[in-house]
Amino acid sequence: MRAAISILLVLGATAFADPTTEAKRFVDAGVAARNQGDYDGAIELFLKAHATLPNPLVLYNVAQTHREAMGTATDPDARARHRDGARDYYRQFIATKPAEELLLKAQGWVFQLDALYAIEHPQEEAARRDRLAAAEEAKIREEQARLAAQRKARAERDAQEAANIALAVREQQLGKARTVKIIGLSVAGGGVLATAVGVIYGLRAASISDELTASNIYDPGKIADGNSAARTMAIAYIAGGTLILGGAVTYLFGAVMAANVESVAVTPTSGGAAISFGGAF
Description:
4% strand, 2 domains, Serine Threonine Protein Phosphatase 5, Tetratricopeptide repeat
């Protein structure tokens, strides 16, 4: 294939030794050399163009020139050199991810050249394929290890988050239990105060009764005071007893709540979160 692929290069304004101008000069000279059958000279000029201004199409032209030179070479060493050069530069061109049409062409030439190399060098080609397979297997194992580590890290993170949530809920429940116990103590304390008031009024009622008995005088006012103190005493005793009993029940309820919460422990593990039960009521 004698026709070179045209390379569109935008010339700079008037800059001397502009890379674009220099690269175009090398490409034009390389095309001329190839058309004259000077493949080695063409390859050298194309590579100078690529070194001046990298362009994937220049790599394609280098590969094409090597392949054409291989077809005309009579010396086995020169033929092998151009064959391997074509394989190398086609692969470099493919690595640039070119347009689909040229990509398919380059891949087709690589396939043919690899097949030719495999026929001429079966042992080397088998070794190369083994190296490629080993590299691919190593890449797969590396990716599997990365995914396994990622899954493990995610599981540990999820387990820790679950444990943190459980601990937060546990602290919240313990806070509620403490609040209930405090309420129970407060209510019972109110009952003690009410009982103390009942004792005071009971003493007052007894004192009035003793005074009336000792004087043996009918005093309606004192009798009314005694009766009022007795009623207040009874009310205070009833209220105090009720409050003490209610406070005790409330406190015990809070204690049971706390015991139930403290008997459950959540700890993160490598595979999730473990729940254990303990404590006593």
